[in-house]
Amino acid sequence: MASPSILYALQSGNLYRVAGALAGPGQWTDLNGGIQSFAMASPSTLYALQSGNLYRVDGALAGPGQWTDLNGGVQSLNDVPVANVPYIPANGILFGPDGPSYLDVQQGNENDCWLIASLAEVAARAPLEIEKMFTYIGTEEENGSVVGLYTVRFFNNSGTPEYVTIDTELPAGGSYYDRPTNGVLWVALAEKAYAAANAAGFVTTCYKNVNSYDALGNLNNSGGLSSWALQAITGQTIGSTTNLNNVASDWNAGSLIVLGTSKNKPTDSDKAIEADHAYAVVGYDESSGMFLIMNPWGTDSAGWAPGLDNQVYGLFSTSQEVLLQNFSEEFNGISTASGLAQASLNPIGLTVQWSYTANPPTAGANMQEEPDSVSENRSCLEFNSLQTKGIAEPTEASFSIDNPQSGLLKRWHFEVDYEM
């Protein structure tokens, strides 16, 4: 089933959104809290919005909170992603006082570092892109509690915006999957929304159309690709490379960058950098050549992952040499934001500095694929096979984009590789 399933009722020639839980067999609660009957108007016809299409629901109710679709399948009115713990209303605010920040992330009990690190990266470099993802649409009552409702935007593989509607109920109230930091909810809501969008087929995971948090990474320990997440968040073409000698130049060119470590790190690597993990590049100091790296597990004030003092870095600075020793791949793409954020290399009391540039060039008539480039997609099974063998076989596509506004010729590499 596609998720979310939004019901509409046609009554007296008007189409009403069914926003509340069923009040009883054949009834629903409208936006104003009034109990309506499916048979109060003649004809009373239900519609379900699935994958952007409005389908007529001609079946009888199968049970409280359910309906029978045209094919005889039993569907649910409240089709939230399956979680390993009960949903509880979460208290908090969407964004902190300074807007979305990469410091808001704290990955929980899901193997979706590829997604959480990507959210951190976009928040660090293009926070307005995060803000534009969310639209507040009001409140409703869920199990006796008032919860907020948000529409969350992602982009499908064709770059077309798609929308899912979620509420502020979270598994275990926000203490099981992404854990809201200082009561800031946007990361946890984006994670929930990505799971719902995956069920609807809008975004990519190894288990597309599965309506579950575990489709984001825990099923068969599948993990995912940061290129999927960055593309879904920004709508831009994203790729990867195993050549990490150009991270600094990619940063200076305005790229969003997520780095991955291998499952079998070299013996001389830093043990405080987790293997088989994704990290966001949130800062670069050209004068010192030092990068600032964010672990999606979160960070405490001393730069360690919460609860893992002196064991795993949360937020840390590193040189190009150490980066090459510890990381095996780079996911990158162009930010559409006109202002790129740069975090300072001070792990405590971080500040954000802005540098404004012209909008990066966009794909169009001036984009030309170089003659020798190739582009290839691999299935999840192929990715997992390569991961099992420990073999990296990236394919690369290079593009030159001439920006008439600035007169600059810029070149980007987009590669497809497997996610650790």
Automatic annotation (TrEMBL):
SMART domains: CysPc (SM00230). Gene3D superfamilies: Cysteine proteinases. Belongs to the peptidase C2 family. The keyword Protease applies. GO terms for molecular function: calcium-dependent cysteine-type endopeptidase activity. The active site is at residues 113, 277, 295. One of its GO terms (biological process) is proteolysis. Residues 99-304 form the Calpain catalytic domain. This is OmpB protein. PANTHER family: CALPAIN (PTHR10183), CALPAIN-5 (PTHR10183:SF379). The keyword Protease applies. The lineage of its organism: Bacteria, Pseudomonadati, Planctomycetota, Planctomycetia, Gemmatales. Keywords: Hydrolase, Protease, Thiol protease. It comes from the Bacteria.
